[in-house]
Design a protein that fits this description.
The protein is an alpha+beta fold. The chain folds into 2 domains: 35 residues; 134 residues, Nucleoside Triphosphate Pyrophosphohydrolase (Alpha-Beta Complex). The protein has 4 helices and 12 strands; from the N terminus they run βββββββαβββββααα. A hairpin with a 6-residue loop joins β2 and β3. The chain is globular.
């Protein structure tokens, strides 16, 4: 029996919604090609984001701890931020690393991008690797930031992920793009069902 081919949904109309500071809401009406029903959907327009996996010369990962408003608790994650208009993602990554931590690097590699939640977000999160970072300045935090820096080696990162101390999905996504770190985070377990 042949499977149905998923088809793109035709957009029939679009209406600007409220400006939500970081996001701008938009309402789009699509036709479901399977049912021919018109469906109203919300899209949050957002600038692209960057995440920086920053490593010291001895492969310690630079982490930031900060209070997050969405979950109302302190998270452990990696330096990150919004791409400003007219800025390239690498430029943003360099700026965010310096502003949040005071560290810089002359050795950058692109680890690719992910779509944080294509169900309602239209942006990408670009992952960058900064190697052999060095402290060159003091952090320059904006009024909405209060950040504590922390370093962990790969084994400590793996354990923090396994026990839930690091659970920020975009940090985990960046870690997964660097096999030297990711390998062994979730070792094969026979007690997990198939």
């Amino acid at each position: 029996m042949a499977q149905n081919q998923i088809k793109s949904w035709p957009k029939k109309e679009s209406l600007r919604g409220p400006d939500l500071m970081i996001f701008k809401a938009r309402y789009d009406w699509y036709i479901n090609p399977r049912t021919d029903k018109k469906m109203k959907r919300v899209v949050l327009e957002s600038p692209d984001w960057v995440n920086v996996l920053a490593l010291t010369a001895d492969n310690r990962v630079l982490l930031v701890k900060q209070f997050r408003f969405g979950t109302a608790h302190i998270t452990t994650e990696i330096p990150a931020g919004l791409v400003d208009p007219g800025e390239e993602p690498l430029e943003t990554a360099r700026r965010e690393l310096l502003e949040e931590t005071g560290y810089t690097s002359s050795k950058w590699s692109y680890l690719g991008f992910v779509e944080p939640n294509p169900a309602f977000l239209n942006n990408r999160c670009h992952h960058w690797l900064a190697e052999e970072i060095t402290k060159t300045a003091e952090p320059d935090l904006d009024a909405g930031e209060d950040i504590e820096l922390r370093f962990m080696n790969f084994d400590e990162i793996r354990q923090a992920v396994r026990d839930g101390r690091i659970d920020h999905v975009l940090a985990l996504s960046a870690f997964s793009r660097y096999p030297q770190l990711w390998n062994g985070i979730y070792p094969h377990r026979k007690d997990i069902g198939t």
